[in-house]
Amino acid sequence: MLSGAVVPYLGPGVLRGVTSKGDGKPMPADSESLILAMNNGTPMAPKLMYEFPRAAMNLEQKKGRKFIERFLTTTYGDTQWSDSSFHQWLADAQLPYIIDINRDTQLQQCYAGRPHTLVVGLARIAGTDYRFKLYENRGGQYTEVTLDQVDASLPVLFKPMGTPLPEPNFIASDADYVDYITELMGGFAIPAFLKEHRLGKQYVFLGMRMLRDTERMVLSDVIWGAGNPAGWVLLPEPTDKEKRFCAKKGLEIVEADFSDLLQARQAA
Question: A Pfam family for this UniProt protein (predicted)?
Answer without folding.
Answer: SIR2_2
